[in-house]
Amino acid sequence: MIEHKNNRVQPPYSLLAELTHRCPLHCPYCSNPLEMTLKDHELKTEEWCRVLTQAADLGVVEVHFSGGEPLLWGEDLEALIHHATRLEMYTNLITSGIGLTTEKALRLKDAGLANVQVSFQAGDAKLSDQIGGFKAFDQKRKAVQAVKEVGMHLSLNVVLHRLNIDSLDEIITLAEELEAGRLELANTQYYNWALLNREKLLPSREQIEQASKIYEEAISRIGNKMEIIWVIPDYYASTPKPCMGGWGAVALTVAPNGDVLPCPTAGMIEGISFENIQKSSLNQIWYESTSFNAFRGEVWMPETCRSCDLRHEDGGGCRCQAFALTGDATATDPACHMAPEHSIIEKAVQNANSSSEKPSSPVIYRNYLQHLK
Amino acid sequence: MSSTIPKLAPKGRLKYDKVRGNHLLLLPEKVVVLNDSAASILTLCDGKDSVHTITEKLRSSLQLKSSQATTNGLPDFQKMEEDITNFLKEMVDQGWVVMQYDRAQE
Ligand code: SF4
Ligand code: SF4
């Protein structure tokens, strides 16, 4: 039995295993850090197997293999899926689809893979390829066919922003046509690459309203034939989103170099040092580490949140967003209308809704080579 | 309904979670905590047995558990099949179980 030093801390349910930061695409909203892990510093197959075993012992029941592009990792992904399946964990592959042939899909399925989530950048080839900075659309369609052919469950993921939200209709049609079981419409989260490009990516209020109509229509038309997930983005909501069930509450991320993080973007918070799987066990990190305990409970909360009844629901919002926008990870998430620094969000929203010409600075595409750790 | 054959949807996996001491239904992006009876019904949804057979199996395992007790302690068969049917309908609505129609038992 695990001895819980801190009785309130429950075991995590899910692990995001980021195998590599390398990716053939260059999405300008990529949630990967600006400084990426070099190939030579990526964990190897045996190290990941150890992580998986420790995760299962800790209570993790779902593993999401992600990246970058996990199929570019180059080590033995099938062995990891096989290992996780033997440990009775649910396995999901989060992929751009590049490199997923029918043969590969079959091997992954045989290894035990339960679900494949393929990302699209838009509903049509031209825009999708333009946003991803890579001619990927046709390959993605082929990957989807491969997943279907071998009979795995298919989810589609599309990150929404100013440049593609107007064609939400087409995105939903594409998902229906591809017979996805689930369509995840993820709002761009403005950290890392996305924050660099916020002016280009933040939709206007009108766009959001139009998109919500299309979404509602689709939900009632499609019913339970395809699950569609979307929420109003936090820049346009009055209170923040609870961050993945809370900091160190239900999920954890292991980065390509073995750093263990409460969420995929937490690495950008300065002043917190995250422990590495090569030095400590997952159990130790989950229950004992300073980083995971930093924002558990309510002690760390600023007065605004501590005296607010909504703190049980949203936990004071996202720590990464608080840090990214205010420089202080313990601040109330500026997305909250009660936050002292809410004006940061208001300004960005105002800007996104003003009719004046936007300065024509180019979109900054995510680039691996120029940003190595 | 009695002769339809329920099967756990291919995207779902059942698991007994030793760490928490719970039965779980694992789905893409979702973990559902099951109570014991839900877990025992879903375990039998293997695409081979009809709702009727599943009811029989569950009933006899209940019988085994209360070994000394007489059948008096057991719920009425019809009532039990009805409960199981209702539960499965919910599962079908959620998309976690699929129903197949069995021609052999027509
Ligand atoms: S967001 Fe785009 S660039 Fe980033 S990992 Fe995903 S597919 Fe690659
Ligand atoms: S004040 Fe804090 S707890 Fe209250 S709604 Fe805003 S972020 Fe949430």
TrEMBL record, chain A:
Domain Radical SAM core: 9-225
EC numbers for this chain: 1.21.98.4
PROSITE patterns associated with the record: RADICAL_SAM
Keywords assigned: 4Fe-4S, Iron, Iron-sulfur, Metal-binding, Oxidoreductase, PQQ biosynthesis, S-adenosyl-L-methionine
Keyword Iron-sulfur: yes
Pathway in which the depicted protein is active: Cofactor biosynthesis; pyrroloquinoline quinone biosynthesis
InterPro entries recorded: 4Fe4S-binding_SPASM_dom (IPR023885), Aldolase_TIM (IPR013785), Elp3/MiaA/NifB-like_rSAM (IPR006638), PQQ_synth_PqqE_bac (IPR011843), PqqE-like (IPR017200), Radical_SAM_PqqE_MftC-like (IPR050377), rSAM (IPR007197), rSAM_sf (IPR058240)
Pfam families cross-referenced by the UniProt entry: Radical_SAM (PF04055), SPASM (PF13186)
Keyword DNA damage: no
Cofactor: [4Fe-4S] cluster
UniProt binding sites for [4Fe-4S] cluster: C23, C27, C30
Free-text cofactor note: Binds 1 [4Fe-4S] cluster. The cluster is coordinated with 3 cysteines and an exchangeable S-adenosyl-L-methionine.
Catalysed reactions listed for this entry: [PQQ precursor protein] + S-adenosyl-L-methionine = E-Y cross-linked-[PQQ precursor protein] + 5'-deoxyadenosine + L-methionine + H(+)
Function: Catalyzes the cross-linking of a glutamate residue and a tyrosine residue in the PqqA protein as part of the biosynthesis of pyrroloquinoline quinone (PQQ).
Family to which this protein belongs: Belongs to the radical SAM superfamily. PqqE family.
PANTHER family listed in its UniProt record: PQQA PEPTIDE CYCLASE, RADICAL SAM DOMAIN PROTEIN
Quaternary data: Interacts with PqqD. The interaction is necessary for activity of PqqE.
Protein name per UniProt: PqqA peptide cyclase
Organism taxonomic ancestry: Bacteria, Bacillati, Bacillota, Bacilli, Bacillales
Gene: pqqE
UniProtKB/TrEMBL annotation, chain B:
Domain of life according to the entry: Bacteria
Annotated InterPro entries: PQQD (IPR008792), PqqD_bac (IPR022479), PqqD_sf (IPR041881)
Signal peptide: none
Keywords: PQQ biosynthesis
UniProt pathway annotation: Cofactor biosynthesis; pyrroloquinoline quinone biosynthesis
Gene3D superfamilies on file: Coenzyme PQQ synthesis protein D (PqqD)
Subunit description: Monomer. Interacts with PqqE.
Protein name: Pyrroloquinoline quinone biosynthesis peptide chaperone PqqD
Species in which this protein is naturally found: Mesobacillus maritimus
Gene assigned in the entry: pqqD
